[in-house]
Structures are given as structure tokens and as C-alpha cells.
Amino acid sequence: MKNFRVHKTIWLFLALVLAFSWTLAGSVALAQTPFELPGPPEKKEECPSTFGPIITDTAIPIEKGKFAVQPTFGLGFVTNNFSPNWRRVSAGGNFQTFGMDWKFTYGLLNNLEVFTVIPFIQNWASGVNPPGPGGARNASFASLNDINLTFKYRLVEETEVRPTVTALFATDFPSGHFRRLNPRLLGTDVVGGGAYAFTTGFNLSKWVKPFIFYGNFWYSMQTAFTNDDGRNYPRDFVTVNLAAEYPMAGKWVALLELTSFWDGGRLFGHKSNVPPAALLSVMPGIEYMYSEKLSFALGVNCDLAGKNNTAAVTPLLSMVYAF
């Protein structure tokens, strides 16, 4: 019995030594391996905020319930006319146009925005040759231009691979002055197209660091209308706009846009009796992001090539305020 108690004491002592050894070894291991608290998840880098192109339309709709107002001012100086053969010819005088567009945008639903553009035009002409009735060589005229209403819905959200893709449907209303023209005004009172124009297509955008790219691909159909020259059947046309932004140091962003439209035939209705026109333009610009709600953009749009159209140089100033 005495030996059993001795052996029991020895085994209890050995168990205590072994447990102490394990505890000590664990403490040493913890001391050698520093303990790290779990940090916050790595934040995904986001596309920088920019003004967006001045002429090319953006692809990402405004947030639901948000509202933005964007006035754009432009003063165009006609330099030449483009002939049917894409040649530059004399404009036959000095012509200038001041345009003031007011764009109002509202987020109707998630991924769906609606905006309207209300444009005002002031035209001037001087030194016109040949002169008008009574020898008139100078004239001016101001009027509301055609009002636009547009709906945009985002179909595809941007990822690391795919771009943002947005469907667009727009209508231009013939609110400009296009008939009952006064010959003494030397064509300055022609404001607006005279037709309803229905446009559908897609907008795209993609951030490929450090650039942000944009694209518009639209098809427009115009209704027939009557003016002082009789019944007109205007052509359908295709719009292709491309733009790129380069965010620089601070709040500045460089901008470059290439815009164009190309007349075609008519998908529906009477064959067109209007000569086909086309215009290709380029616009370098600069943007300044004053705050999250207010930003500015300045550019100079230059018409490079075209046919049956005018060539102009147009400085543009635009600003946007978001509520």
C-alpha cells in the first residue's frame, strides 16, 4: 500500500511537470510569433470623379432622386462652308452664333435618368455677299432652338473587364424657328431643324487607369415637315462620338473629344429630297473639379471635315451643379 502511494505521487509529479513544460513551450512560441490583429479589408480603387465630356454623352446615370443643372455657353465663328465634295469654300460673309443650352437631369429610378436640354440661339451675319433685299448685308436673329428629351438606362455595370453600357432613347421637338423666314435676315432666322427626331442607341464608358474613355453610337430618324421651300423629307443620320479624360494633379482633368454625324437614307417613309450632310469635329478641353457638387469645363470645338455643312471654331464653357 505504501509503494502504491509512492508511485501515485511520482506519476502526479511527472504529470504536473509535463503540463508545465507544454505551457512554457507554448508561451515561448507565442513570444516568438508576433500576434497580428485582423486589419480592415483592402479598399478597391475607384474611378476618379470628373466633369465628363462636354459634347459626348456620359454612360453612368445620375443617382436616384438626385438632380443636376448644366448650362453650356458657346460662341461659334464660321470659317468656311463644306461643299458636297468635302472641300472648303467661302462662307459668303461673316457669321457668328451664340448658343446657350440648359440641361436639367433627374434620377428617376436606380440606373434610370431623364434629362431635357432647352437651347437658345443668337445668330449674327455681316458683310454678306451677295446682299439681301434692299442691299442688306448685316442681320441678326434670336430664338429658342429644338428642345430635347432623353431617357437613359444602364444595362451593364462596369467591372474590371467590361465597360458600362447604357441604352438611350431621345426625342427632339421642332421648337425652333424654321419657316416664315424673312429674306432681309439673310438666313440668320433659320434656327432648328423643323422635324421631330427620334434617336436610339448606346453609351459606353470604361476606366482604364489613368484614362476614362467614352463612346456614343446612335441612330436618328426624322419626320417629314413643311417649310417655305415646300415638303422636306430629311435623312436619317448616325452619330458617333468618342472622348477621353486624363485626371491630372489636383482637381484638373484633361479632355479630348472627337464628334461626328453622318447622313444616310430613310428607313421609313418617302425617299429623302435633302442632300446628304456630314461633319467631323475635334475638341480639346480642360476640366476643374471645384467641389463634389460644382465643376467646370472649357473647350474649343473645331470642325475638321464635312460636306453640305458649315465649318466653325466654337469655344465652349460648361458648368454643372448637382443637388
Keywords:
323 residues; mainly beta; 12-stranded antiparallel barrel; two-stranded antiparallel sheet; 1 helix; 16 strands; globular; disordered N terminus
Topology:
Blueprint: H1 2-32, E1 67-82, E2 88-89, E3 94-109, E4 112-126, E5 139-144, E6 147-156, E7 164-173, E8 197-208, E9 211-222, E10 225-227, E11 230-232, E12 237-247, E13 252-263, E14 278-288, E15 294-307, E16 309-322
Antiparallel strand pairs: 1-2, 1-3, 1-16, 3-4, 4-5, 4-6, 6-7, 7-8, 8-9, 9-12, 10-11, 12-13, 13-14, 14-15, 15-16
Low-confidence spans: 1-36
Radius of gyration: 33 Å
> How many H/I helical runs?
1
- Largest sheet, spatial ordering of strands: 1-3-4-6-7-8-9-12-13-14-15-16
H-E order: HEEEEEEEEEEEEEEEE
Total E-strand runs:
16
Residue fraction in strands: over 45%
**Rounded average pLDDT:** 89
* Cα separation of the termini: 93 Å
Structure description:
This protein is mainly beta and 323 residues long. Helices cover 10% and strands 52% of the residues. The protein has one helix at residues 2-32, and strands at residues 67-82, 88-89, 94-109, 112-126, 139-144, 147-156, 164-173, 197-208, 211-222, 225-227, 230-232, 237-247, 252-263, 278-288, 294-307, 309-322. The chain has a twelve-stranded antiparallel barrel. It is globular and about 70 Å long. The model is unreliable at 1-36 (pLDDT under 50).
